[in-house]
Amino acid sequence: MYWSIIIFKHLIEKHMARIKNGITGGFSGKVGAIIGYQLRGKDYLRSKAKPTTKLPTQKQLANRERFRLMQAWRSRFTVFFATTFKNHTHERSAQNAAHAFNAGIIVGEYPAYYIDASKVVISKGQLPGLAGLNMQVDGEKQLHFSWNNSYGNGALSTDLLSILIWYDEGDIYEASTTAAQRVDEALTYTLKYPGGQTFADVYVTVLSDDRERAANSCYMGRVEL
Known about the structure:
Layout: H1 2-14, E1 18-19, E2 27-31, E3 34-39, E4 42-47, H2 58-76, H3 78-84, H4 94-101, E5 106-109, E6 112-115, E7 131-137, E8 142-148, E9 160-167, E10 173-181, E11 186-190, E12 199-207, E13 218-224
Antiparallel strand pairs: 1-2, 2-3, 3-4, 5-6, 7-8, 8-11, 9-10, 9-12, 12-13
């Protein structure tokens, strides 16, 4: 046992891995074909990927394109999702939660994939949403939201209405996680409307004041600009 530990330690030092928590703990780095890493406080091992000369299949190419498109889409909203999916960080990262709950937004046939904006989810959880939520748009490009106060199942007057405006399904968006409180029953939101945009998709959700709980988000529709 003693010599096994010495040999293992020598291998780790030779391959520049770092021992955590002593010789009985996990390690980070690469030892031969094994890679050690830590995720959310737990130690893991995985094998180093082997290079291949095989050409990817059509299915593999399609999966890679779907993943690439999803990653590019999600990265637009990294800061926003860090808040709206915070309620899932006890089990995974907020970004992984955003990825998982939006797995169905990429539609079409390879290679002509596209994002179905109506399927986008900006939060998911057990907090009650806003009863009777409605949106009207006026000629000044103002969004008028109204809803009915309802409490129970953990809903509080201080819950926050959060809003995401995504322009032209591109890189431009605006958002607020503190646009109004549940108790307000109404909100008028003026679009900043960056020049050259032709439409905006509108999403609304509710977060608890400490951001530890969230409701299922609502797609309010597309606003023509």
